[in-house]
Request: fold
Amino acid sequence: MTPQDLQIERLKRRRSLRLNRRHLALDAVAERPKRRSATRTAESSAEQVLVDGCCFDPYDDHSGAPASSGRAPSRSVEKIERGGSCAFSRAHAVADVACFASAAAKCFVVIEVGAAKLSRNPCSVSVAARSRKMINELVAQHLLEAGREHGAVRVSTATVANIAEANLPGRDYGPGVDQALAIEKIATSGRVLDVLVGPGGTGKSTTMAGLRAAWETEHGPGSVIGLAPSAVAAQVLADELGIETENTAKWLTEWRRIPELKSRRDRFALNLSRHAYPHSPGAAKLRDRLAAMDQAIAERRLKAGQLVIVDEASLAGTFALDELVGAARQSGSKILLVGDWAQLGSVEAGGAFSLLVKDRGDLVTELTDVRRFTSEWEKAASIELRLGNKAVIDDYEAHGRITEGAREVLLDAIYAAWKKDIEAGKSSLMIAGDSATVTELNARARADRVMQGTVAEEGLVVADGQKAGVGDEVVTRQNNRLITTGRTWVKNGDRWIVTATNSDGTLGLRLANGGGEVSLPADYVAQHVELAYATTAYRSQGRTTDTAHAVVSPATTREVLYVSATRGRESNSLYVDTSFDPDPATSHDGATSQRTARDVLASVLANDGADLSAHESLERAQLLAENFGVLAAEYETLAQAAH
Reply:
C-alpha cells in the first residue's frame, strides 16, 4: 500500500452524517456548552466527521435508488469562541469541508479537526480550506499513480491484429488505422487506469466496439461493461456496443452497499450455523436468504479480468473516478476513461480526465481522423476550433456558417433555420449556452406550432413554466425507475411526444423514437418535464444530428462553442450575439456596445472554461507566486505606496 493510500485510509473512519439527498448539505447544530467541564472535554478531543457520499449526481436524479445509510451525529457540535469581526464555529468549518467532500466525492471521507485548535483560532475557515486542498491533492495523486501503474489484465497483440483486420461484429466495416492503433495500445497496455481521447466525430463508438470484440475474445462474453454520466447516455452506449451499462452514480451507490450486505450476509451465516434444526423449513429459509445475499454482493462487485468503459469521462467527478479505480484494484479489473478534454467538464470537482491526459503526454491514446462531417473543410475546422485557433473563423465565414445580430433577431433566425431543416426531414438541434435562452426558443417553437395547428393550444403547465399540449415534444428531467413503459423506465433526458393531457394533471407520452408509452403523474409533470425543441450545450454533448444551430454570446466558453459546433453531420451554424447585454433588466437602451461577430468569436475561443484538478491548480498557483512579472509589479506597487 502506497503512502497516499495510507493517508486516504486514515481519512476513512468512524461515524457518518446523513446528507441532504439533493443539495448535499451538512447541517451541524451549533449549541453553546452550558458547563465548563463539557467545554474542556470537547477541547481536549478531535471532532471526527465521516461524510457519506450521496447516491445522486447533478446530471441525474435516481428515484427509487437506495438511500444513504449514514447516521446523524449523536451529539451536537459546540460553538467556539468569537474573536474580532470573525465568528466561525467548528460546526461551520466541519460543514464547509464535509459539504465540499460529499458533493464532489460521493464517497466516504473523514475530516478530522482538532477542537482545541479551532477554539484558539476563530477564523477557522482556513483549516477547512487546507483540508479541502489536502483531500483533492491526495485523490488527484491517487489517480495519477493508477494511470502509471501496470500489471492489470491485458489482451495479446495477435488477438488485436485479428480484430483489426476483419469487420467488427454486427457491422460491415472494420476499424480505421487510428482506431486499430488505439485498440492495440489500450488492450495491451496492462494499465489499471487507461484513457482514450476522442475529439468530436472521430469514431469513439467504433473504437470501443473493436476493443470490446478483442477483450471478449480472450476474457469471455460479459467481460466488458459500460458506465456513463447519465442514464440516457448509458442506454446509448448499451445500444451501440451491445454491453451491460449503468449510470455511474447509480453503480457507485450499489457498490457502496457491499459492506452493509456483507454484514447482513454474515448474520445469516451465523444464525444458520447455530440453528438447532438444520433440516427444518426455518433453516432452509435462512439458506435461501444467504444465497440471495451472495448473489446481491456478486452483482455489485467487479469481476477479475473485466474492462469497465467510462464514456464521456470528462463529465465524471474526480472522487467518483477514484472510487471506480479503487473498485477495479480490489477485483483485478481495468478502467478505461473515454472522452475529450476539450469538451465540457464535470459540474462537480473535476479536471481529472484532463490531468491524466497531460500526465501521459505524447504517449496518450488519441483518435485523429475526424469522420462525422460530410464537408472536408469542416473536419479540419473542427480540430482548429477545438484548439482555439482564431484563424478558423475565416473558414466558417467563408462557408456562410456565421449569422450576427441582436439577440431577438438571432432567436428568430435560429428558429426559422431549425424549422426548415425539420420540415425537410432532417434531425436538427437548437443549442444555447443557458437555460433562459433555451426557454425562449422553446416558447417560439411551441407558439409557431400552435398557429400551424400541429400542437394543441390547451395543455398542462410543465417545469419550465410553459404549457405542453398534445403533439408537443417534451423531455423528462428526472430518473424514475418506478414509472415504466413496459420495456424500459423513465430517464433523465428521454424525449417524448405528448399524446394526452388529463384533467387530473397526468400526462400521456410516447417515446419520440417510436418506443413505448407512459402516463406521468401530476407532480412529476409539474416538476420534471420540459419542452424539448431546444437544448443546452451540456445536454447536447454526445448527440449527433444532421444539422445544428447554436447561439453564441461573449459569455460563451470555448468548450461550449466546440460542443455546439460539432453536433451536426451536414452543417453547424453559429448565431453570434453582437449586442450582448449581461443584465438586460437593469440596462439602458443604446448603452450596450456593438461588436463584430469576429470579435465575439475570437474572445470566445480565448475563453478557456475547462476545469483544473486540484493538482493542476496547485502547480499554477506555485508558478504564479514565482512569476518574475508578478513579483516585479507587486514590488513597484509597494514602492509607490511607500512614497
Notes: The chain has four domains: 3-136, 157-256+303-366, 376-606, 613-643. Residues 157-256+303-366 form a domain with the Rossmann fold fold (CATH 3.40.50.300).
